[in-house]
């Protein structure tokens, strides 16, 4: 039979007793304080087939009480408000928020929750297919136009959300595609989305968008335009042969009809050239996104001489 010896390991027992007493004294002497903080709101047991109309609150304000040490040791996620939606029905529902619905660490007491009532508008979930509308911006290269409407593949997408919001939705949209300065067809994979934050895409996240860019449907020739010289060096003179050219223009009917002959400026660039004879390309400035299809003649003879005093 084993006997109990109360004085066995007496030193260790006294040490443990002393440590416990010191901890009790330190805790009992610590000041109790209250603090306000914001806690995340968790919606648990959400019934299938229901949706929240509008935006549900994501946080609540709580006041907690405890020792200064206990409160200082709290980390993110230690305080969480929980709302149980089990067996909830469609309609405007009110839920009481009490301190008992807030999880907190040992030694920390929740004394108040604000707001004390959470209101949620719950509706049946609905899925529907809507068309995808591409967003295209910019102007093609001079002389080119966008032909027809942009083609979206696939052209419909399934959306899901609260019944009234889904019935109200008319389209999904793509991120913006730029055709600025292009002279050939553009095909790009882009992200699609919905403007109503209460709606979401069921599956599809990207689509292919094709924009057809073709030469403008109308052409016109502006005849006998004088050739200008640019960047002629100091104390130099230039003669151009021939002195005029014909310029072919292309673009939309509206743009071509708006252009006046005086808006077309053929020129040769003489930058860096000294005395001598040169065969140079004729360039042309045109307004309003008109494209130059031809310059006749395309090259001219230029004689550069010095100017005598």
Main sheet properties:
9 strands, mixed
CATH topology of the largest domain: RNA Polymerase Alpha Subunit, Chain A, domain 2
Q: What is the string of SSEs from the N terminus onward?
A: HEEEHEEEEEEEEHEEEEEEEEEHEEEEE
Number of strands: 25
| Classification by helices and strands | mainly beta
Distance N terminus to C terminus? Answer: 136 Å
Oligomer: single chain
Describe the structure.
The chain is mainly beta. Helices cover about 10% and strands about 50% of the residues. The protein is elongated. The N and C termini lie far apart (about 135 Å).
Features:
309 residues, 51% strand, mainly beta, RNA Polymerase Alpha Subunit, Chain A, domain 2, 25 strands, five-stranded mixed beta sheet, nine-stranded mixed beta sheet
């Amino acid at each position: 039979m084993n006997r109990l010896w109360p004085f066995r390991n007496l030193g260790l027992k006294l040490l443990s007793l002393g440590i416990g007493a010191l901890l009790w004294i330190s805790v009992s002497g610590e000041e109790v304080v209250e603090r306000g903080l914001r806690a995340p709101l968790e919606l648990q047991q959400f019934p299938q087939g229901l949706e929240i109309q509008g935006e549900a609150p994501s946080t609540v304000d709580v006041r907690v009480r405890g020792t200064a040490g206990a409160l200082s040791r709290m980390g993110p996620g230690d305080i969480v408000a929980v709302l149980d939606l089990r067996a909830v029905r469609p309609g405007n529902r009110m839920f009481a928020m009490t301190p008992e619905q807030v999880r907190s660490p040992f030694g920390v007491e929740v004394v108040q929750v604000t707001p004390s009532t959470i209101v949620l508008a719950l509706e049946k979930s609905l899925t529907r297919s809507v068309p995808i509308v591409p967003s295209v911006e910019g102007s093609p290269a001079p002389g080119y136009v966008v032909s027809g409407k942009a083609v979206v593949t696939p052209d419909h997408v399934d959306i899901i959300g609260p019944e009234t919001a889904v019935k109200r939705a008319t389209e999904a949209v793509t991120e913006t595609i730029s055709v600025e300065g292009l002279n050939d067809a553009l095909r790009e994979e882009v992200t699609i989305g919905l403007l109503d934050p209460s709606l979401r895409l069921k599956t599809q996240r990207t689509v292919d968008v094709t924009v057809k860019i073709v030469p403008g449907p109308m052409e016109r020739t502006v005849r006998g335009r004088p050739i200008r010289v640019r960047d002629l060096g100091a104390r130099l003179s230039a003669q151009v042969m021939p002195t005029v050219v014909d310029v072919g223009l292309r673009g939309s009917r509206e743009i071509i009809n708006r252009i006046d002959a005086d808006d077309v400026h053929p020129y040769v660039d003489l930058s860096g050239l000294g005395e001598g004879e040169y065969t140079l390309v004729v360039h042309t400035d045109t307004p309003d996104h008109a494209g130059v299809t031809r310059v006749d003649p395309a090259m001219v003879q230029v004689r550069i001489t010095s100017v005598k005093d």
